């Protein structure tokens, strides 16, 4: 017996090393090496009958390697090609560039109980969004200096599931101090944001056109944009209602009247007096003005159109809630719908769609601006005291698509409004399109699959109950989201580790 065992020893050791080899190379072992992705391949092909590229919709394959798109082939070529690696076949599902949301309040650090980087970026990934640009206010402190930007970056470290860039704040404190602004821009903010009315946050005061003019002249050197909340408080009925009692304060009409279109129009009119500096040969050539969340589709929009035709470097965004809802359908006391500027009437909504379809509105953003449910005053329903902000991040794609279908929205338009133009605004040349050399920021979805957005639906936002979209039936289901080649989300599941990259301008 001993002799037999002795002879078997070399064989046993061979078997042991073979098993050890298998253990090392088993796929599950490799997964633990890359917790950033639900996929353990670094080089793979995504194939689909419907891929949205800048050249239009194609049937073919996208090759991803090392986080980038390295080739794109049409279906015929794919069939001729013999070389293959790992292939993910999405069939008829739509493959699109990841959405880029340039207007998000993640409230981190300081008010992470309102949203926070982890839940906000998980919600984004589940909604096909691969890049967020975080607003400088609602976190504490506001992002208005290199030090406060550092706090943002530290808070984002290993806590973001998609890429996140940051806007800095243009506030009276830094507006007339060119070196302070330069320091903030050199520290990596992608541009600046300012308010022409009170922001609702004490450490983020409003600016006037003199501040904005100064800001633009510094931004010109960096060729970065200024985003402006364009409303100016004019005399209105706004202060009557509080005295008029609780019923008035619960009425949506009261709130609507308190922020009339005139507020937007007055702000834009003033803004355009300095916007001309951005023209070629102007004092601030190289800077760019971007008007956030336009709600008034009449006089305000006409002013913007005129500025564009005069050569001002100016763009404008609107948000899904202005396109999905109208004042007529908002119930009194339902403060989930409170935002500023307010959601206006149905005629205005139709005009916004028209302007978007005709190209006068350049892009869309969520303006996801959550808070804790207590501050939304959902039980009390006081529109005048409730926190203003719509919670929507995870649903902007199905919302735009569901409400846009009757206007004939195409997949290419979705990519333009939600990827290509936002990438340009944020100065992200390697994002915003399925193109060779770009980051492999891609998502896959089924436009025709409907779902009820109710308590059974997996919602990753921190406070689903405050979302205005709850209870709606929407169309468009996200299957998978890739950020720089990492499969960060698939069918309800997120990658174990948060491997998004903080984006800093250089
Ligand atoms: Zn906002």
From TrEMBL:
<dbReference type="InterPro" id="IPR017593">
    <property type="entry name" value="Allantoinase"/>
</dbReference>
<dbReference type="InterPro" id="IPR011059">
    <property type="entry name" value="Metal-dep_hydrolase_composite"/>
</dbReference>
<dbReference type="GO" id="GO:0000256">
    <property type="term" value="P:allantoin catabolic process"/>
</dbReference>
<dbReference type="InterPro" id="IPR032466">
    <property type="entry name" value="Metal_Hydrolase"/>
</dbReference>
<keyword id="KW-1133">Transmembrane helix</keyword>
<comment type="similarity">
    <text>Belongs to the metallo-dependent hydrolases superfamily. Allantoinase family.</text>
</comment>
<keyword id="KW-0378">Hydrolase</keyword>
<feature type="domain" description="Allantoinase composite">
    <location>
        <begin position="41"/>
        <end position="93"/>
    </location>
</feature>
<comment type="pathway">
    <text>Nitrogen metabolism; (S)-allantoin degradation; allantoate from (S)-allantoin: step 1/1.</text>
</comment>
<dbReference type="InterPro" id="IPR056854">
    <property type="entry name" value="ALN_composite"/>
</dbReference>
<feature type="transmembrane region" description="Helical">
    <location>
        <begin position="6"/>
        <end position="24"/>
    </location>
</feature>
<dbReference type="Pfam" id="PF24890">
    <property type="entry name" value="ALN_composite"/>
</dbReference>
<keyword id="KW-0479">Metal-binding</keyword>
<dbReference type="GO" id="GO:0006145">
    <property type="term" value="P:purine nucleobase catabolic process"/>
</dbReference>
<keyword id="KW-0472">Membrane</keyword>
<feature type="domain" description="Amidohydrolase-related">
    <location>
        <begin position="94"/>
        <end position="488"/>
    </location>
</feature>
<keyword id="KW-0862">Zinc</keyword>
<dbReference type="InterPro" id="IPR050138">
    <property type="entry name" value="DHOase/Allantoinase_Hydrolase"/>
</dbReference>
<dbReference type="GO" id="GO:0008270">
    <property type="term" value="F:zinc ion binding"/>
</dbReference>
<dbReference type="GO" id="GO:0004038">
    <property type="term" value="F:allantoinase activity"/>
</dbReference>
<dbReference type="GO" id="GO:0050897">
    <property type="term" value="F:cobalt ion binding"/>
</dbReference>
<comment type="subunit">
    <text>Homotetramer.</text>
</comment>
<dbReference type="InterPro" id="IPR006680">
    <property type="entry name" value="Amidohydro-rel"/>
</dbReference>
<dbReference type="Pfam" id="PF01979">
    <property type="entry name" value="Amidohydro_1"/>
</dbReference>
<comment type="function">
    <text>Catalyzes the conversion of allantoin (5-ureidohydantoin) to allantoate by hydrolytic cleavage of the five-member hydantoin ring. Catalyzes the first step of the ureide allantoin degradation followed by the sequential activity of AAH, UGLYAH and UAH which allows a complete purine breakdown without the intermediate generation of urea.</text>
</comment>
<dbReference type="GO" id="GO:0005737">
    <property type="term" value="C:cytoplasm"/>
</dbReference>
<protein>
    <recommendedName>
        <fullName>allantoinase</fullName>
        <ecNumber>3.5.2.5</ecNumber>
    </recommendedName>
</protein>
<keyword id="KW-0812">Transmembrane</keyword>
């Amino acid at each position: 017996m001993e002799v037999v065992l002795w002879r078997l020893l070399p064989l046993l050791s061979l078997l042991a090393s073979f098993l050890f080899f298998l253990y090392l190379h088993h796929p599950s072992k490799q997964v633990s090496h890359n917790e950033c992705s639900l996929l353990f391949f670094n080089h793979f092909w995504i194939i689909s009958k419907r891929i949205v590229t800048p050249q239009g919709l194609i049937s073919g394959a996208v090759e991803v390697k090392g986080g980038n798109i390295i080739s794109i082939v049409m279906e015929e070529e794919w069939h001729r090609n013999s070389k293959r690696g790992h292939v993910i076949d999405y069939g008829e599902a739509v493959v699109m560039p990841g959405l880029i949301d340039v207007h998000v309040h993640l409230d981190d650090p300081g008010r992470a109980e309102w949203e926070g980087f982890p839940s906000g970026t998980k919600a984004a990934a589940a909604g096909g969004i691969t890049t967020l640009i975080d607003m400088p206010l609602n976190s504490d402190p506001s992002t208005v200096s290199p030090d406060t930007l550092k706090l943002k970056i530290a808070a984002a470290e290993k806590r973001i599931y998609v890429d996140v860039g940051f806007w800095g704040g243009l506030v009276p404190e830094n507006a007339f101090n060119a070196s302070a602004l330069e320091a903030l821009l050199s520290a990596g903010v992608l541009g600046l944001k300012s308010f022409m009315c009170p922001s609702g946050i004490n450490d983020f005061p409003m600016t006037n056109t003199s501040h904005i003019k100064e800001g633009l002249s510094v931004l010109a050197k960096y060729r970065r944009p200024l985003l402006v909340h364009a409303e100016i408080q004019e005399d209105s009925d706004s202060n009557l209602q509080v005295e008029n009692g609780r019923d008035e304060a619960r009425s949506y009409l009261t709130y609507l009247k308190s922020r009339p279109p005139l507020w937007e129009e007055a702000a834009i009119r003033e803004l355009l007096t300095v916007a001309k500096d951005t023209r070629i040969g102007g004092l601030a050539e190289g800077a760019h003005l971007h008007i956030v969340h336009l709600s008034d589709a009449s006089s305000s929009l006409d002013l913007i159109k005129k500025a564009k035709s005069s050569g001002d470097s100016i763009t404008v965004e609107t948000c899904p809630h202005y396109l999905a809802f109208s004042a007529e359908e908002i119930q009194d006391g339902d403060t989930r719908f409170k935002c500023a500027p307010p959601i206006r009437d149905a005629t205005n909504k139709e005009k916004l769609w028209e302007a978007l379809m005709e190209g006068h509105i350049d892009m869309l953003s969520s303006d996801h601006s959550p808070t804790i449910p207590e501050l939304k005053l959902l039980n009390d329903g006081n529109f005048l005291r409730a926190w203003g902000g719509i919670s929507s991040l995870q649903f902007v794609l199905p919302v735009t698509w569901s409400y846009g279908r009757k206007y004939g929205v195409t997949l290419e338009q979705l990519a333009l409004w939600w990827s290509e133009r936002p990438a340009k605004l944020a100065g992200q040349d390697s994002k915003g399109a399925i193109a060779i050399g770009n980051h492999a920021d891609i998502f896959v979805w089924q436009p025709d699959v409907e779902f009820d957005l109710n308590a059974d639906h997996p919602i990753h936002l921190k406070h689903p109950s405050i979302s205005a979209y709850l209870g709606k039936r929407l169309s468009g289901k996200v299957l998978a989201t890739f950020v720089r080649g990492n499969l960060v989300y698939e069918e309800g599941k997120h990658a174990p580790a948060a491997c998004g990259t903080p984006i800093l301008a250089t």
